[in-house]
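To whoever picks this up:

The parser on our side crashed when reading a file containing two proteins. I've narrowed it down to the boundary between the first structure block and the second sequence. Both blocks are reproduced below exactly, byte for byte. First block:
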Amino acid sequence: MKFVKLFLFSTILLSFLNCAELFQKDKKDNNDALFALLLNSGCTISDVSSPTSGRKIDFTACRGDANAALAASGFSSSSISLSGGLVGTGSTSTVYTNSSSLSSLGGDKKASIEIVYVLSQGDSSITAILPSTTNLSGPGFHILPSTVNKIASNGSNSALNTPRVWSSSVSAEKILCLEVHQESGNAHVFGWESSCAAANRGTYQFEEDGVAADFGGDRIGLRINKATIKSITIYSANIGTSGSFQ
């Protein structure tokens, strides 16, 4: 009887050790697969110096799965695919930076970006929140085929006091330079219908001061509705030089 018990105990122990070894092997294989996925994923990132220092992320050159490529490039994403850039289909198609993306350090917050995009339909839109929380709340811009609106603290969008209207850009590549400054608790939102390098930094083509805003975040967030983001440049210093700076 003792021999039988010893045999059964040895068999069970050996089975347990084999299972443990198999579990560790599976865990290692999964980690190796994840590492390989991230190693082969990502988007092209380059430094820029004009009109000020920043980083350009080229989404047309992303590799691998969309979520893995964006994670490797410093973004969190939801309902995004890759096809000549970041493709979004509705209000749940979002990306935001995983770290602070302000264009000022200390004091009131400022955020500055350049965005290259294509709106695919007449009801397409892109919401650019800067600065943004991880829930995509904050001040910013609602980009439409023929104009750009402001985003207020309640998330609604409406025309700017100084608007800019252009011919419909449906299916055409377009570029905007956008900036938001926190001033006396409110937002000064402004921008240019051009690249930031080509902008007249002392004169804004569209703007509004005193926009009610929540400055609880420090990221850059995008909601992509029936549109493609080809690239975004995030600047580390502010671009605009005119206005009621605090």
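<<boundary where parser fails>>
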Amino acid sequence: MSRPEPPDLPADTPPPTEPEQTARFEPAPEPVEPLLPPPPPPEAFDTLRSEDGQMVLTNEGLELNNEQFSWRELEGVDLQPVRWLLGVLLGGFIFLGFLAAYLQFWLKTAPAALGIGLGLALLAWGLRGTNRWRVHRPGRQTRYFSLGGPANGWQALAREANRRTGQRHHETATAAGYWLQQPTWLAPIAPGPEDTAAPAQAAPNAHKPA
């Protein structure tokens, strides 16, 4: 009696190969956060000049002693009044010395008046001093300028220069934030059935070579 043979098992079939898929891009769903609005046009600045003409504030930047500095190049400016200490000390000592000598009847009126006037002139010259203007630039060395005259006018120009610098940096940051959000509108999606179909055969060339 023969032993029954086992039935033949079907050969393993390889899994179906999926056609190569290519990603498509289409508008992504609206984000949760609202998109930034388009940036407004840059503010137009008026031209301001100092009394002596050494400094000019224009729409493009700061001009100081014939040197140009762009508003986006600057980090800020500051002004520091500097007193000439030697003039202040000499003026004060001369004024007080001649005044004390006149009150003690050591000097006559004419020499005492001359000495008191000289002391007052030196004192006023030392108190007036100069204005130290510092121009700060990111990653670069600070520039120093000495400007004469009363400090009130220079301080007003320094405040306006800092305002214009901050405004230009704010406009640049706003525009950069608006344009950086543009690529987020597109997101990759799965290919559709029409993308997986085999490409059509190229049409025969109607123009045969001679």
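After patching the parser it read the second block fine. The CA atoms of residues 121 and 201 lie 100 Å apart. The radius of gyration is 41 Å.
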